[in-house]
Design a protein that fits this description.
By secondary structure, this protein is of the alpha/beta class. The protein has a single domain (33-150), classed as Dna Topoisomerase Vi A Subunit, Chain: A, domain 2 (3-Layer(aba) Sandwich), CATH 3.40.1360. It has five helices and eight strands, in the order ββββαββαβααβα. It has helices spanning 53-56, 91-102, 119-124, 129-135, 140-150; strands at 10-14, 23-27, 35-36, 47-50, 62-65, 80-83, 106-108, 137-138. The protein has a six-stranded mixed beta sheet with strand order 3-5-4-6-7-8. The protein has a two-stranded antiparallel ribbon with strand order 1-2. α2 (91-102) runs antiparallel to α5. The longest helix is centred in the middle third of the chain and has 12 residues, at 91-102. The protein is globular, with a radius of gyration of 15 Å.
Length: 153
């Protein structure tokens, strides 16, 4: 992970096999936010916020939260679009999306018919991920309606 000035601030490893610990994040600067991709975004455009660094490699102008404690408060002046995993039965993800909608943020609500759980799986299944993201970004009342039809908890 690098900051906007391209200073190394941390790194993350992922287990490739069955393991109780899936990710390990080491921060070299404990004050820096656990966010991947800050060194490669164009802040003049919309920035997609995805859950994992690997997913962010498939999404133009995106950053990834490296853990649930990723802090984006310092990015509040940017035009952020939140694209959480497609897990309508996951209480934590449902809660995060609901919070974003309540804060009048733009969110991606995955359309019916996509069964894949994350962006990586969607790309492997042959989906045009940028088209899906752009056509399923919502806010306000529209987001609430789409969200209520999507969630399953």
């Amino acid at each position: 992970m690098y900051d906007t000035e391209r200073n190394l601030i941390g790194f993350q490893g992922r287990s490739l096999g069955p393991n109780s610990v899936k990710y390990i994040t080491v921060m070299l600067n404990e004050e820096a936010p656990k966010v991947y991709g800050m060194d490669r975004i164009d802040t003049e455009k919309s920035v997609y916020v995805v859950e994992g660094p690997f997913d962010s490699t498939f999404v133009n102008n995106s950053i990834a939260l490296c853990g649930s404690d990723g802090d984006l408060e310092y990015l509040k002046t940017y035009d952020l679009i939140y694209a959480y995993d497609n897990e309508p039965r996951n209480k934590e993800i449902v809660s995060r999306i609901e919070r974003c909608i309540g804060d009048n943020k733009r969110v991606v609500i995955w359309p019916r018919g996509i069964e894949e759980k994350d962006i990586n799986d969607m790309v492997l299944a042959g989906y045009d991920i940028m088209n899906i993201l752009k056509s399923n970004t919502h806010s306000g009342l529209e987001a609430k309606v789409k969200f209520n039809n999507w969630k399953k908890v």
